[in-house]
Amino acid sequence: MQKLKIAPSLLAADFGNLQRDVEMVNESEADWHHIDVMDGVFVPNISYGMPVVKAIAKHATKPLDVHLMIVDPDRYIKTFAELGANILSVHYEACTHLHRTLQAIKTEGMQAGVALNPHTSVQLLEDTIQDIDIVCMMSVNPGFGGQSFIENTYEKVRALKLLIERKGASTLIEIDGGVTSKNAKALSDAGADILVAGSFVFNSENPAQTISDLKTIAVS
Ligand code: DX5
Ligand code: ZN
Q1: Pocket probe mutation, ligand 1, options 140, 180, 187, max atoms within 8 Å of Cβ
Q2: What pLDDT, on a 0 to 100 scale, did the predictor assign at position 1?
Q3: What percent of the chain shows pLDDT beyond 90?
């Protein structure tokens, strides 16, 4: 069984010590750097934009997993490719022509991700799943770190896993929001491949150890 991937969300990092926190992720057992970009329109919060992503990219040694919580993401696909994004996720709810957007992301040499809000059914991916590298399933309403995990997520993960298998796709399932040591194992058992964790990692005494623990819990 392949080891579960952990993607610490830098939204919960100390922005005054961003280089230090990025380097902590570099040196930890984490697999990706999760980078949350919010525009204050698609979600009721503004996080950070291109200059900060550029600063993260300068120090990061692991793949950059960029989660765009913005309207009309097509406008910035090229920009994020140039900034060094390896995985670019757009929201299903923000894309009128999702298939075209996925093609545009791949044309720029990135892996294409689709993020789903908690209310968005996985069945809506029936006709695009083979074109999606990663589904970023929101287990909180996007916009803020530190929210409580929505329990209905387990059922959605199982349904998505069935859809992926039925369609013979190789899509990975990423869970984003409220991930802790309490739900990591159940999420992994339900079919999750990647866990994003922000506050649980960065608010802990020893973030690198917490990353390592999450990885171990999920496969034990
Ligand atoms: C929420 C973001 C998440 C967030 C997760 O809108 O997409 O990536 O940083 O933070 P925690 O792990 O604190 O819920
Ligand atoms: Zn995210």
Answers
A1: 140
A2: 53
A3: 97
